[in-house]
Amino acid sequence: MFYTTVRTAFLSIILIVATHIAKxxxxxxxxxxxxxxxxxxQVYKARDGKFYGKIIWLKEPLKNGNPKTDDNNPxxxxxxxxxxxxxxxxxxxxxxxxxxxxxxxxxPKNGKTYSCKITYKGxxxxxxxxxxxxxIGRTSTWTLAD
Length: 146
Prior knowledge:
single chain, 146 residues, mainly beta, Lipocalin, two-stranded antiparallel sheet, 1 helix, 10 strands
């Protein structure tokens, strides 16, 4: 009886530890300010194992008294989609300790989508958006939100 209780307790501890390890967050799975600090983006890992980011806060969430929408989206059907909740980072894959690559970033300011890679730097992320090769693009620095 004693050994059964000990074995059950031991298996329970292993299960708890394994569950905790499985749920461990990646270093970029946090909330970040964009470079201008006009929005907050929540970066998360999806079931496909890739990283995504959605806008969860806007400094100025309203336009003409209504929630801001994706007015510049090239797809007219999506122009009424609210900016808050909009997924702007898609499909990034971890590529080393501090690098994430092969993703896409959408800029709701101009309605364009770019290839994207991220470099994690502790309290900042360097996002490189580009067309074709990363030499032709620009880098934006996001800061860890409080």
